[in-house]
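Quiz preparation item.
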């Protein structure tokens, strides 16, 4: 590992100095010393998303991570080439063309890792995520002190700028992180300026259906879940499920009778759909058929959202990844088309893919991510 290399360098300098004392004195010995000794043991200490102070030796050259949002953040700061171990969920080979060349190091849980493989990779830094589930402390105890663990969340609007800038500092990608931060802050600012003038009576009631893709699998999030209050504010809506009983804000099974009795102005469905979404999908047929099933379902067909044709389908990648801001842009335009008449979510999405994912991809020709767009 890098520490071993530094130790060998120090030992070599010592041997050369000792030999030189007999050959020519101290002045020649000093010529072997680095002109900037700080480069040998340079490091940075940051406070991560867990509130832990972590010191990382620089430069960082080899990274492993276990959450898909981290992979996208690494693309944002143009550091994907440092990745030597990755999560098991990332699958988009248009955005991540060399996925098959990077070993998987995590299982179904972000804290379920292949430690033997990680140590074989000579990893300089492991980037974790703060998820309310068991296993974090055990993971840290098995990796540190040999491999520093830094927790950075890239799925939270309130900490996105802070964490992307910390990532830039750790990886020597400050310029790239700052460019993204300016883009992100500008977009957030534009949305706030539009929705902050709304009265509560101007905000539509939203039910956000999620799940594993089954029509009868009705899950959602309360306002206790990360990013939901920010979503409500930025898009100008009221969460119908705001105060339901939940596990940390996640409602794993919504009571269908309760839901059918609610007044829902807008229904947004965000869940997996095999061959329905993605950069490799050009046909809207699957997602259109999924929407038709939703509209006919007895739980939903009495909603004002159905009567007024305000049912929208959106890809899961716009939730839980840095692309949440693009999902918010689409939703804001759906919820308040006149207020956001100058907003073009598709153009925002294109800009993100071109500038920060650094891929040659035309959304006018390829991809299904929302349905209908307007």
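Solution:
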């Amino acid at each position: 590992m890098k520490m071993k290399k530094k130790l060998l360098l120090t030992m070599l300098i010592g041997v050369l100095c000792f030999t030189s004392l007999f050959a020519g004195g101290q002045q020649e010995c000093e010529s072997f010393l680095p002109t900037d000794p700080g480069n040998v043991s340079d490091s940075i200490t940051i406070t991560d998303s867990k509130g832990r102070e972590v010191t990382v030796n620089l430069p960082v050259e080899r990274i492993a991570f276990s959450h898909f949002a981290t992979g996208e953040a690494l693309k944002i700061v143009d550091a994907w080439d440092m990745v030597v171990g990755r999560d098991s969920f990332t699958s988009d080979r248009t955005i991540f063309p060399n996925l098959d060349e990077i070993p998987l190091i995590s299982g179904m849980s972000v804290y379920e890792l292949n430690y033997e493989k990680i140590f074989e990779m000579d990893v300089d830094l492991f980037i974790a995520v703060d998820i309310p589930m068991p296993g974090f402390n055990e993971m840290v105890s098995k990796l540190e002190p040999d491999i520093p663990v830094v927790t950075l969340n890239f799925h939270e609007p309130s900490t996105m700028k802070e964490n992307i800038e910390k990532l830039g500092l750790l990886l020597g990608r400050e310029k790239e992180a700052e460019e993204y931060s300016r883009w992100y802050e500008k977009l957030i600012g534009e949305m706030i300026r539009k929705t902050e003038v709304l009265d509560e009576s101007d905000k539509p009631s939203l039910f956000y259906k999620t799940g594993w893709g089954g029509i009868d699998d009705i899950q959602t999030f309360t306002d206790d879940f990360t990013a939901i209050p920010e979503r409500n504010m930025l898009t100008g809506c009221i969460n119908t499920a705001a105060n339901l009983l939940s596990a940390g804000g996640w409602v794993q099974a919504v009571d269908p009778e309760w839901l059918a009795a609610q007044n829902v102005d807008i229904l947004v469905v965000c869940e997996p759909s095999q061959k329905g979404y993605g950069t490799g999908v050009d046909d809207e047929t699957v997602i259109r058929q999924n929407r038709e099933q939703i509209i006919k379902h007895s739980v939903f067909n009495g909603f004002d959202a159905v009567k007024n044709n305000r049912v929208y389908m959106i890809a899961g990648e716009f939730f839980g990844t840095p692309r949440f801001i693009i999902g918010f842009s689409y939703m804001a335009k759906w919820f308040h088309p006149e207020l956001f008449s100058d907003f073009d979510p598709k153009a925002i999405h294109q800009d993100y893919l071109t500038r920060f994912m650094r891929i040659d991809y035309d959304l006018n020709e390829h991809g299904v991510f929302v349905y209908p767009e307007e």
